[in-house]
Design a protein that fits this description.
Length: 440
């Protein structure tokens, strides 16, 4: 299952040295007392109210967590589902895209949450996962992106639609295959994994070609496949997988994006090595840079930086180096997703983009998980006039998304508690009251 550890809603604090691009908007927001909560729908606000209530004390939260597996799905869906999940079918995911667009978030990174929890057997056949992922590109990302472009004044102000591919969800016995990808005994398995990913990337490439004919002035891809990063013992297999896909699909344009976890001590070396290989073989790199989600389950802790501060420095350095590379005369990096809930990192990236040219700006996208860091997403858009923001949207069968929801509840619970449950609940209540007053 997805194991994305996440930071959540913290109150807005005054910005650092970064100067807001749209101070008037910011002023209006502050003087009207509006918060990011005002940009959510009423059911989403009520969902946050429920989460606030569930996390008022440690014992309340523990009770909710232990009862959650027994809660009927209809109740879960009624209360908190839409805060974190895009839906259980493609029509619902399209609606989620529309809802996000109303908040000014023009695109999504879709993730079908069916995979092998233990890296062995997926809960539905892999062929079905491949097929549904392909459908999510053609039936959701393509029409949604085209709709956003048709409404935009500038076709390059709409970020691409992404489809996230989790390598452990795209082949049975994925962990063994990825760990032993260089061993001849596992070669057939690796080739099958590559072929499954290739079937999805081919749809991405075909859709990009079709849309490029319609919108020749576009400088970023319309849609892209993103390979998610896994536990570090599987990562060298994943690096090979993403490299094989870059080599096949990224000649002169971006269709595939790989992920590097910047909490790994070797990450800057990986970025440099991949750049050498890309230059040698003449393909472009697309990167999603994350800090890394597996710090608590990593069997060999020494592969990760010893301190959070070192990870932070390395993350920001990786983002700065990628943007510098993209801005150079002969770039090897063609696209970058800054996937983080860290406000400082997002503001630093935004500051660098204010100085970059239009082609680079269209190819750097800031991403957060649906239902997480909504205040940061809101601040980036409204205070710094950022357009290139997307949300990572999990979708899929209710049983699997329920497990995903439980982890979001635990993580959001921690964050709500550390921000004190009552003040958060009061903010939600005030936003609901403002809404009622406005309607009456
Ligand atoms: C759109 C999106 C896509 C993602 N995709 C992936 C993915 O494919 N694979 C993946 O692994 N993760 C993924 N993540 C999760 C990501 O790796 C982080 O776990 C999560 O975003 C929290 O980090 P942060 O940058 O948001 O913020 P922060 O809260 O500032 O950073 C927390 C992170 O810092 C690091 N850290 C914390 N304490 C220490 C310490 N003592 N020493 C060293 N490092 C420390 C850990 O990585 C921790 O997760 C994704 C996140 C987003 C938003």
């Amino acid at each position: 299952m997805l194991r994305l550890k996440a930071l959540v809603s913290r109150p807005l604090r005054p910005g650092p040295a970064l100067r807001p691009r749209a101070p008037l908007v910011a002023h209006r927001l502050q003087s009207s007392g509006k918060s990011y909560l005002d940009s959510l729908t009423t059911p989403e606000l009520l969902g946050y109210g429920v989460i606030g209530l569930a996390t008022l004390s440690k014992s309340t939260l523990n009770t909710v967590i232990s009862l959650f597996p027994y809660a009927p799905l209809w109740l879960v869906k009624l209360l908190v589902y839409r805060n974190y999940c895009g839906g259980d079918n493609l029509a619902q995911v399209l609606q989620t895209g529309d809802r996000l667009a109303q908040r000014g978030i023009q695109n999504m990174m879709l993730s079908l949450t069916i995979e092998a929890c233990d890296g062995t057997q997926t809960s539905v056949p892999v062929s079905q996962i491949v097929e549904q992922t392909q459908q999510s590109i053609s039936q959701v990302l393509v029409p949604h992106t085209a709709k956003m472009i048709s409404k935009a004044a500038d076709i390059n102000s709409v970020p691409p639609g992404y489809v996230a591919l989790k390598p452990t969800g795209l082949i049975d016995d994925a962990a063994e295959i990825l760990r032993n990808h260089n061993n001849a005994k596992y070669d057939a398995g690796y080739q099958q994994l590559l072929s499954n990913c290739r079937d999805i990337c081919r749809v991405v490439a075909q859709e990009n070609e079709k849309l490029a004919k319609q919108y020749p002035g576009r400088t970023a891809p319309f849609v892209a496949a993103v390979i998610d990063a896994e536990r570090s013992d599987l990562q060298h297999g994943v690096y090979r997988l993403q490299r094989d896909l870059f080599r096949e699909f990224n000649h002169g344009k971006i269709n595939v994006i790989g992920t590097v976890q910047m909490y790994l001590q070797e990450s800057s070396h990986i970025l440099a090595e991949e750049e050498k290989l890309a230059r040698k073989d003449g393909y472009l790199l697309g990167w999603k840079l994350v800090r890394g989600a597996y710090i608590h389950s990593e069997p060999d802790r020494t592969v990760i930086f010893a301190t959070k501060q070192e990870t932070d420095q390395n993350y920001d350095a990786g983002i700065a180096a990628s943007i510098a590379n993209m801005s150079s005369e002969k770039p090897a990096v063609g696209h970058l997703v800054v996937a983080s809930h860290n406000r400082e990192s997002q503001l630093k990236a935004t500051q660098l983009l204010q100085k970059a040219d239009a082609r680079v700006r269209a190819n750097v996208v800031l991403g957060q998980l649906l239902g997480m860091a909504d205040n940061i997403t809101f601040e980036l858009m409204n205070r710094y006039d950022v357009k290139n923001v997307i949300k990572y949207v999990p979708w899929g069968p209710p049983k699997e998304t329920k497990e995903y929801l439980l982890r979001r509840l635990e993580e959001n619970g921690d964050a709500v508690r550390s921000d004190n449950g009552w003040p958060f609940l009061k903010q939600v209540a005030k936003a609901l009251f403002r809404r009622l007053r406005h309607q009456s």
